[in-house]
Every structure is written in C-alpha cells, then in structure tokens.
Design goal:
mainly alpha, three-stranded mixed sheet, elongated, Ring Box Chain A, domain 5, 30 helices, 5 helical Cullin repeat like
C-alpha cells in the first residue's frame, strides 16, 4: 500500500512521490527511515525518470541507552515478581525490548532476563525447607506455583518481541515461558526434600479420599497440573502411586492379605468395580488424562491380577450354584480387563461343569432324575454364557467339551436313560406340555444325546431302549404315542432331522412307513357302517422292515373281535393282492364303556387290559390262574397287566391280598366303588424293567455291530490304497470310525480279514498288508 504526499523544492519546485519502502518509528527522539523512490519530469510530455536513493544509515543508540533501558526493564520484572505496581507503561516497555532487539542486543537481553528470574526462584526455595504441616506445605507450594505462572505470563508479554524473534531463530533456547518452567523445576521441584514431601502429600490426600475422607480436590487438581506441566508426573509420582501400600486401600482386606471367605467374594467384586469407577472419576476430576491408562492398569493389577485364581477358587462355584447372574456378569467384565483373566475363568468354568455333571452321571441313585437334571443344567449354563459371558465362543466350546467328558464316564447308561425319559414325557402327553413344548424338549434331549462319544453304542442302546418302551402307530395325518396325538409334521420331521442324520444306522425305526392311507381308512369306515354289532374297529398297518420287530403273542380274543379281524383281512386283501397281515396284539388298545356306582366312565386301556376287564362281565371274582387260562396272556405280561389295573392310580379292580406285586393265588374282583374326576380315564400299562441279561444282550449286539463297521472301514481303505503299512492302516481306521476302538480289537479284525482272504501280509515285510482283489 502506498501513501502519497506533496513537498516543495526551492530549486526547481518538483513534485516528489514517496512509495512504501519502509515505516518510520519514533521513540525517545530516534528516527528510522527507509529508502525512497522519486519520479522526476522536467518537461511536459517527456518520459518520467525513476531515481532510487540509498537507505540512510541507521542512527546510533545514544550513550548509556542500553544500560538505562535494561535497568528500566529489570525494575519492571522485579516489580512483577514482588507483586507491586510497575512505574512504566507496558507498551513503553514492549517498545524498549523491540529497540534493543533491533540493534542486535537480543542475546545479552535474554541472559540478563534469565539471571533475574533465576535469582528470584532461588530465593523461594528456603521457605519450603522449614518444617511445615503437610496441608500447609501443599498450599504453600501451590501458591508459589500459581504466583510463578502469573509472573511469567506478564514477563513474557513484555519480552514477547524477544520471544518471537531471537528465541524463535535459536532452536536450542527455550522460550521465556519454558525457561521459567525449567528454573522452577530445577531449583524447587527437583529438590529432593521438596519433591518427596510434595508427592507424599498428594498421595496421602488421595489415600484419605479413597478411605472416605473429604479433601480439597481443587488443591489436588492444581498440584497435579503443576507436576504434569513440569514433566515429573510420569517419573517419581507414578512410582509412588504404584506402591501397593500407597496406591490402593481396600476396606474389605489389605492387598497382601488372603481373600475373605466365600460369601464375601461377591462383595469384593463390587468393591473392585467401585474402586475402578472412583479412579476413573479422579482422572476426570483432577488427574491428567494421559495417566488414566497406566493408573487404572495399576489398580486392576493390584486388586484383580494378583488374585485371579484365589477369587475363582473361593467364589466361582458359589456364584454358579446359586445362579447369581448379576455377580457373574460383573465377574466376567472385571476379568476381561486383566490380561489372562478370561483364560483363567475359562479353565475354572470347564472344571466346574465337569465336576457338577459327574455327580449327576456317576451316581446310580440319581438315575431317575439324571436326564431332567442334565437338561436343567444345560439350560442354566447356556443362559450364563448368553447373558454373563457375552456369548463368548470359547466358553461355548468349553461347555461342549466338558459335557462330552462327564457324560461319557458311564458307558451306555445315559443313552438308556434318555430313551426312558422320552418315553415318560410322551406318555404324559398334553397333561404336562403342549406340542410346542414337547418339540422343544425333544430338541434339548437330542443335544444331550449328541454329547455321547461314539455313535454306535449309545445309538444302538438308545434304539433298543426305544423299541422296548415306545410303541408308535398312526391314524390318518396324526401319530398316536400311547394315545397321545402328536402332529406328524412336528414330530417325524424333527426326529428325522436329528436322529437319522446323526448316524443312528440304517435300521433306525423312526422312519417307519404307515399304511394304509387316509383314503383307505375312509373306505373301511364306510364299510363298517353296514356291519352288525356294537364294536368299532380301527386298524393301523405298519410296513414290516421299517418298524421294530415285535414278538407275536397269541391271546384268546372275544368271538366278536375275531370276527371283525377276519372281515378286515378279507376287505384289505381285496384291495391289495400278494400281501400278508400279522396281528400285533401287544400294540392293540381299546376304549371300554364301564358303569360304576358313581356313574359311567370310559376306560382307555391296552388290549391285554381289555381282555382281563371283560372277564368281569361273566363273573365277580377270579384267581390269577383262571385269568391266565381264559385270556392266554403270557405269565409276565399278565402279572404286569393286573398290576396296572389293581395296584396303580386308577384301581378299577380289587386284589386280595393287597400288595404292590402280583403273586400266585391272588384273587381279583371288580371295584364297583371306583371314583375318578375324569370321564375318560387312561390306564397305562406297567413297563417291564430291563434285566441284566437284556443289558448284556444289548451290549453283545452293539459289539457285533461294531465288528462289521471296523471290517468295512479296513476293507474300504485297503481297496483304495492296495498296499499299506500296519501303522498307517491303524491311523486311517481311527480317522474313519466315529467310536473309540482298542488296538487289540483292531488287530483281531485285521487277522480275521486276513483269514477270510480280504487282505494278506507282504511276504518280504510282515508289517505291511496287501489288498486281495
């Protein structure tokens, strides 16, 4: 930008234009003038001539100017340090500093200022070496620091030109502010007595606050800010904060003392969480933000990291047994904050599941409730993983591993008990659960079943138990299980997805074909309308080979029943040629209409129970031998039938003498005084207990089935490899089989295949086998 003015010249009256070449400053009679540019034009229309004049020489400073100016500046600095008024105007002082710097006296001026500040700070140290109470000492050091900061701000404002020119050009020199910090740190805070007392005092105030006392937080904030500005925060102070006796105070127990008894562990967890929240609040309130991570890590290490195992040993089982969800959530959150905490918790989690599950499986006294307890326990641990352990995949896999470990400590028994449990649940039917609840129960049971090692033994045992306890038959679109209606879609589809796909074997009967179809049943119903008599017959035909094999049992049916059987046989063979019907009396069931003194009832009973009850239409009292002769029912089956009618909950007949078992010579009569709140009453047949011989037979059948699978695996491998060493063959067989095999059993199967010419030993190497095509 240019400033234009006119001036007259006595010689030629020429006009002179001054362009911006500098700025003149005036102070104390001194003038600094920049060079000028002049345009001259002697004649009108002639070309203008540009004349550039040299700068005038910089005027010299008057004698004693530097000394007098420094004395003035020193007097102002000392006034600031002593908190008295300054005689001179701040702008005048600022201009004086600029004049000195402009004449290259900056270095001397900086050293003189440093000496003045150093002398003042040196004089301050003596007041802190005297014996003072801790609180008074901290307030005194804080006041000294606050005064120092205020003084250096004013001093820097006066020497700002020096700071922005000379100091800025010399990177090795600290700024005026930093110079003040260095001097305060070197002469005051670095003094061992002052530093030790300051840090100890701060730590003591923090410890008092942690103990519940009220302290001056503004004082703490100021002192800690001082340490941070002086850069001593991360050295001696942090070391002091890291000492267990100074860093944290626990009202429940000292840091080095063992954990309290089990009931206190949840309280201790809440105490640790409260401590962490308090420390986070202190960081926000008066600590430096940069210290949050190391200081919180120190708290976590002191209260958690050094006591992980002890906390879990004395408290985890208690929390899990009582299902204390909130405390378990807090436990997981706290352990997640400590390095290695989750892994330690995971290991104790596995041990707890194994120990708790083993008490259910190994103890024979709990066989009656084992399956339900396993289901409840599985629901419990699933809920804990989902809610408390944040669905951590490691805890899910650990739970599965633990279940597989303890449930296989008792061979075959869990599978048998699962079958019995399913049988009992299906018998109860809609009395205890809806169809939807039944489906969920079956899903859970199959998950438990899946944990059993080796698919062959448990599956075969499960299948045998199932065939002994569960009878399935169908009527139209629904499947009847002991008279309970289960939609086919909700049962068959589900079990076909779970059971068969888990290698339950090709003979698993849950896929049984049901014949005839609904259209055939409609035709039979229409045909029965024209038949004489008051007995209604419903027949369900099961395709042989898809259902379990039932032992035929010939019994003495009523003439009306025999006649209806023949009519159905003729009707069925008339619709389907080349087929053979075999009646399974053990699967039959009937609905009888009975009259008692209380009124009429409908009894839903088995075919065997029906034959026994119908005898009382012909007489009032019969012995065991008479009933056996009249019905033709096998002795064991008859005793269980009479037991269900005379010793169960619905006692429609009397037994003399009264007892739980049916013995030879017992007499039976109709109970005319029978009462029941329901109109239709279902009387379940007593299930035959599995004998030791039957269990041994099942085990033998399982063993034989395994031999076939081992043989098939060996032949399959040898056919593909042609030649293989013994160790490689054994290794590949183990990989293919889904159940454990003893080396001795595997060696026997290899010898058997060699004897049957499926394979042979190599003539040159006896440890190598060749496949025989």
């Amino acid at each position: 930008m240019a400033e234009e003015s006119s001036a007259s010249c006595s010689s030629n009256k020429m006009k002179t234009v001054f362009l911006a070449g500098g700025v003149g400053h005036h102070a104390n009679g001194l003038t600094k003038t920049a060079g000028s540019t002049t345009f001259s034009n002697s004649k009108p229309g002639a070309a203008k001539k540009l004349v550039i004049k040299n700068f005038k020489e910089k005027p010299k400073l008057p004698e004693n100017y530097t000394h007098e100016t420094w004395q003035k500046l020193k007097e102002a600095v000392e006034a600031i340090q002593n908190s008295i008024s300054i005689k001179y105007n701040l702008e005048e002082l600022y201009q004086a500093v600029e004049n000195l710097c402009s004449h290259k006296i900056s270095a001397k001026l900086y050293k003189q200022l440093q000496v003045v500040c150093e002398d003042h700070i040196k004089a301050q140290i003596d007041q802190f070496r005297e014996y003072l109470f801790l609180t008074l000492f901290l307030k005194k050091i804080d006041k000294c620091w606050q005064d120092h900061c205020r003084q250096m701000i004013m001093i820097r404002s006066i020497f700002l030109f020096l700071d922005r020119t000379y100091v800025l050009q010399n990177s090795m020199l600290p700024s005026v502010w930093d110079m003040g910090l260095e001097l305060f740190r070197f002469y005051i805070i670095s003094d061992m007595k002052v530093q030790s007392k300051t840090i100890d005092g701060i730590l003591l105030l923090i410890e008092r606050e942690r103990s519940g006392e009220t302290v001056d937080r503004s004082l703490l904030r100021s002192l800690l800010s001082m340490l941070s500005d002086l850069q001593v925060w991360l050295s001696p102070f942090t070391q002091g904060m890291g000492k267990p006796t100074q860093w944290i105070s626990c009202p429940i127990r000292p840091v080095n003392q063992p954990l309290a008894p089990t009931p206190v562990v949840p309280d201790y967890l809440h105490h640790v969480n409260k401590r962490l929240e308090e420390e986070a609040d202190r960081v926000i309130t008066y600590l430096d933000q940069s210290t949050q991570k190391p200081l919180i890590a120190t708290v976590e290490k002191q209260l958690l990291g050094e006591h992980l195992t002890a906390t879990l040993q004395k408290g985890l089982n208690h929390l899990l047994d009582e299902n204390r969800i909130q405390d378990l959530c807090l436990l997981y959150q706290l352990f997640s904050r400590v390095r290695g905490g989750v892994l330690v918790l995971l290991q104790h989690w596995i041990e707890y599941i194994k120990a708790f599950g083993s008490t259910m499986v190994i103890n024979p006294e709990k066989d009656k409730t084992m399956v339900q307890e396993l289901l409840d326990f599985k629901d419990k641990v699933d809920h804990i993983i989902h809610v408390c352990f944040m669905k951590n995949e490691k805890f899910v896999n650990a739970m599965k591993e633990a279940f597989e470990t303890f449930i296989n400590k008792r061979t075959n028994k869990p599978a048998e008990l699962i079958a019995k449990h399913v049988d009992w649940k299906l018998r109860a039917g809609n009395k205890e659960a809806t169809d939807e609840e039944l489906e969920k129960m079956l899903d859970k049971i199959m998950i438990i079943f899946r944990f059993i090692y080796g698919n062959v033994v448990p599956t075969y045992s499960f299948m045998v138990m199932w065939s002994q306890h569960i009878h399935l038959w169908s009527c139209g679109p629904n499947m009847f299980i002991y008279g309970h209606v289960v939609p086919t879609g909700s049962f068959m589809v589900m079990w076909s997805q779970h059971v068969h796909l888990w290698s339950c074997g090709p003979n698993m009967f849950i896929y049984g074909h049901v014949v005839p179809t609904c259209s055939f049943m409609v035709m039979w119903s229409q045909h029965c309308q024209n038949l004489p008599g008051n007995i209604e017959l419903t027949v369900n035909i099961l395709t042989m080979g898809y259902w379990p094999t039932y032992v035929p049992m010939e019994v003495h049916l009523l003439p009306e029943m025999v006649r209806l059987q023949e009519i159905f046989k003729t009707f069925y063979l008339g619709k389907h040629s080349g087929r053979k019907l075999q009646w399974q009396s053990t699967l039959g069931h009937c609905v009888l209409k009975a009259e008692f003194k209380e009124g009429k009832k409908e009894l839903q009973v088995s075919l065997f129970q029906t034959l026994v009850l119908l005898m009382f239409n012909e007489g009032e009292e019969f012995t065991l031998e008479e009933i056996k002769l009249a019905t033709g029912i096998e002795d064991g089956e008859l005793r269980r039938t009479l037991q269900s009618l005379a010793c169960g909950k619905a006692r429609v007949i009397h037994k003399v003498p009264k007892s739980k078992d049916v013995e030879d010579g017992d007499k039976f009569s109709c109970n005319d005084d029978f009462k029941h709140k329901l109109f239709r009453i279902k009387i379940n047949q007593i299930q035959m207990k599995e004998t030791v011989e039957e269990q041994a037979s099942t085990t033998e059948r399982v063993y034989q089935d395994r031999q076939y699978q081992i043989d098939a695996a060996i032949v399959r491998i040898m056919k593909m490899r042609k030649t293989l060493s013994h160790n490689l063959l054994v290794s590949e067989v183990y990989n293919q089989l889904k159940f454990p095999v003893k080396p001795a059993d595997l060696k026997k199967r290899i010898e058997s295949l060699i004897d049957r010419d499926y394979m042979e030993r190599d003539k040159e190497n006896p440890n190598q086998y060749n496949y025989v095509a």
